[in-house]
Amino acid sequence: MNYKIPNISILGLILAFFGAPFAILIFNQFTDDSPLTNELVIIREMILFLLTGILLILVIYGEKLNLGSIGLYNKHWGKSLGLAFIILISSIGLLALILGVFHLLGISYGEGGESNRYENVSLAVLTIMMIRAGVIEEICYRGYIMERLEKYTGNKIIYLYIPALIFGLVHYRQGVAGIIIATAIGLLLAFFYLKKRDLKANIIAHFLVDFIPNILIPLIAIISQLQR
Q: What are the sequence ranges of the domains in the chain?
């Protein structure tokens, strides 16, 4: 098929698909997969935010479009918060189902490997990571990639399923289980985005899906131990 995608949008798609994963790959090569410090993680996160900033500049000054073209509207915050809650509950339900299947099949998730690199990273810095994941991954994989591929191809396999699969694959450092979970959650987020075109809601929900198990629950456990 001969899809006529403008060169500036092709550049945007390359940046959205591979900018952050490539930057993380280079970062891991330089850090040699050793335990991370707060300073190193902050540097990495700032680089990723910078790349996303470049993508937004490309949208505004290269494609001559506003941020509404990727679902970012500065209005209806109440509706966005309500939708974010619905997406969050749906994501938790899906995650619980997947983890239940993993348990039945004897598949482990979240043990060792990549998670060990963050043992010395503070909860505050990990929170920055969660914010980055919610903001950047939704802007790139739902807002930009899905909108542009839908606009220029109209093929649901191309604009829905392929981005979700690639989104899952870039979580390869979390193992096969991590890829499955990321792909499934990515499809759920994509479904809600296509229905409502509200990227704010997606960003908030995505952040909370990461924040609650990785930051909030451990923080509550720490506070409980201190009060004993």
A: 7-226
